[in-house]
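User: Here's a chain of 82 residues. Predict its fold as tokens.
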Amino acid sequence: MSRLPGGPSPTTADVLSALEQAAVGEGVEHIRIHLSRAGARGVFFVVAADQEAARRVCAAVCTRACTESPLLQGWTNELLNP
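Assistant: Prediction complete.
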């Protein structure tokens, strides 16, 4: 996920909460994130059949958090390769 310039500046707890809410029922066991002026980077621990399925879950959760959380208005999801 990355924050677009001019977007809100939520706290780490805000971003984590938005991600956890978006991850309900997706098999996500744990999320770690790091915020910077450029946005957020994180790692998801996901129960999935394979790496590709886990990447799809991660992308879906991040996109959902960006679109559904008022705290993340102005943010966008950019899934990075490992």
